[in-house]
Amino acid sequence: MASSQVKLKLLIDTNSKKVLFAEAGKDFVDFLFYFLSLPVSTVVRIIKEKGDQVGCLNDLYNSLENLNEAYIQPSQNKTTLLHHESSLVRDSEFPLLLSGADQYSTTTTTTRNVYMCPAHRHNRKIRIVSRHVSDVPNFVCPHCKVPMSVAVPLVNSSPSFSVPANYNTGSSGATGEGGFVKGVVTYMVMDNLEVKPMSTTSSIAMLNEFNLQNVIALREKVVVLGVDEGLSLLKASMECKNVLTRVVFYGEY
């Protein structure tokens, strides 16, 4: 499992009390890009666990969670919306774990089950064949219209997540790194979470862009981010454009 803490080196303008940018490694950039894979329901749920909310999305989430099954279409299952999963690998591959309990249904086993229609197993004589599987138990089979309740171990799968064909898990490829970006590069992360490879040229261009009048006011600060800060970064990224300043400079977590 990846470390649940990462270090950032911040460049701060003490006059304006603003983070200009952060020097970051692969681990932090992987974590930020991981935000883009998270379904809205997952974001709402994990922020809700912390006692916060994302606008009125919490109310929308709660309304579906509390809606009686009698009002749900027979071919639908509200669990698929409430517990939708990221298309990328989960917290075991990323630092700053987004939730210790409910982000996903974690397991200590090495087997992942998918679920098939019981007609596939029991009705061979009448040639009813269901070619559908679901990673959500009791999802209604679109062919047979019955709950898909037969658990079947998924072969050649990591414990609890699926990985796109073009995703580097670290088990193959030239770098063997895993994650999303390459680790041989130092990255510049702006206050609004814009990410770019760091270089002398990009640093000078950034300072010129801010039109700094007093270079003496610049200070470097090294901070360590953990799980709480990771959650705060996710929440702040949906609310403002000065994310680093708000979370790691003013400590709003």
TrEMBL record:
This is DUF674 domain-containing protein. It comes from the Eukaryota. It holds the Pfam family DUF674.
